[in-house]
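Shapes recur. One chain:

:::
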Amino acid sequence: MTKAKVGDKVMVHYRAAFEDGKMYDSTDGRPPFEFTIGQRMTLPGLENAVVGMEEGETKNVNVPPEEFYGPYVEDVIGVVNRAMLPPEIEPKVGLRLQTNVEAGKTSNVTITKIEGDNITLDGNHPLAGKSLVLKVKLLEIF
């Protein structure tokens, strides 16, 4: 039987949950998900799980942070003075902002702490450092 490889278009059903069991995403009640392996159309953990599978096969995989939204990086956390934010923004913990990091480039940050005029901004993706438990069934290789 044919095994899925990089470059193949595939159709899968999947359930992805965090390690605590909370559901992240699933095709339950939805059409199967189609993607081409290696074209970065989905999370690397899903692409990597499907490689080597045969049609009809089901696999359970632990997806590490590196194959999800990356590890949690301390270097992208910083403290700024309230005066650095535009005056129309009312800072609150959890607020996501877009900031200029260099000419023509922006980055998304989240306010994680407010102490007086000091505001802590975290440039990590909200899901950085998290792992997934993935159940995937390969339905078809095109």
About this structure: The chain has a mean pLDDT of 95. The chain has two domains: 9-70+128-141, 74-122. The CA atoms of residues 16 and 134 lie 5 Å apart.
